[in-house]
Amino acid sequence: MEVGHVIGRFPLVLRSGSAKVLAALGGVVLGLSMVTAAGADSIYPIPDPDPFYAAPADLAAHQPGDVLRVRTLPPVAIFPGATVTLVQFRSTNSRDEPIAATTTVLTPIGHRPDGPLMSYQHFINALGTRCAVSHLLYSADPNLLTTASILNVAMAQGWSIALPDHLGPYFAFGASRLGGRIVLDGVRAVKQVPELASRQSPVALAGYSGGGMATGAAAAMQPTYAPELKLAGAAIGGAPMNLVTMVEVLGFDPHPAFGLAMAAAIGLEREYPSRLPISSYLNQSGLAVRDVMANDCTNQILADGLGGSARAFTTDTSGFDVGEGRAVLEENSLELFGEVPETPVFEWHSPDDPLIPVQAIDNTDHRWCAAGVPVQTMRVPAPEHLSGAVIGAPEVMGWLNGRVRGEPAPSNC
């Protein structure tokens, strides 16, 4: 009942937001009376009304990965038979400050204690707190439905699944280093919850698109951020490996998926408000679109920004080009990470993906191979971005099972 109540509070935000963004895209300057409840100057989302998600007063007294709260959730229709558990834990943001984060754990029927655990990073690609995975599970989210089949297959084979909210409490889409920390701390937390019976579980990571970006970041950061975690492998699909080139592809000229670029700019400003103050570069229409998007999920973000461009919504497009702004993009780009994974990697993508720069993926694979990482790359025949997740799923699942069985990791470096 709690979950349904939370989800049910938001439909009016979507409807009013759609009207406002249509006006903005038509060139109408919106007055202050039409901005969202977050406030004219706010870059942050409306806080989740459920007090479970609020950080406890003693947050700073906890260590990364410490469990803060646990809640059992109702069954989920798309994951029949699974027990659903929401875990809040302590993590750390990009400024090394303590934050509260959440992960939702699916435990299959007949779960064997210390059976394999997969942290699956869903492509949340969102800005609103209502887009938390624990809410999306009960909203028939079409994007989550695309990955339900592989997760059900995994559970049928004995895997528990952790679905972290890897964008953090402020839904900082684009901040992959934040995502990597949350993924790793989420695994730490799951292992501490007795009823989940995963303390000695072998752990693998997987994710696609924005979830692939968080997965890759976690794999690369694990040796230094969570050295005690021994990862069996990481499967990374369709991931934007370089935010600088993503901005070039989606940002400056009108593009059907401009909403994702705009959302990433908003998300990065949330995580790096002093280093990347994107709002200071937005014109009135840009500020209006920012406020409309501030609480939206993936599909609405795409609708909000359809055909938009940085030139239409900014007074100056140099914010990402120089100084701290560019540094933030580079720091959150897997192609440019100083760290590399120590765990085997399975990487899959479509060579014809129109949404992400494929050259950055190839460059990252080559760099990891050169560092001695066993990388198995698969190119899938997908004409667009999303279907690559589904096409690659059977091969991914086979590869993950091989890793937790302890088989030597294949490589086509």
If you had to describe this structure to a student in words, what would you say it looks like?
The protein is an alpha/beta fold and 413 residues long. The protein is built from 14 helices and nine strands. The chain has helices at residues 2-7, 11-25, 133-136, 142-156, 176-192, 210-225, 243-250, 258-271, 284-293, 298-304, 310-313, 323-331, 358-370, 387-404; strands spanning 67-73, 83-92, 98-107, 117-121, 160-164, 203-208, 231-237, 345-349, 375-379. The chain has a nine-stranded mixed β-sheet with strand order 1-2-3-5-4-6-7-8-9, sandwiched between helices. Strand 8 (345-349), helix 13 and strand 9 form a beta-alpha-beta unit. The radius of gyration is 20 Å and the shape is globular. It comes from Nocardia tengchongensis. It holds the Pfam family LIP.
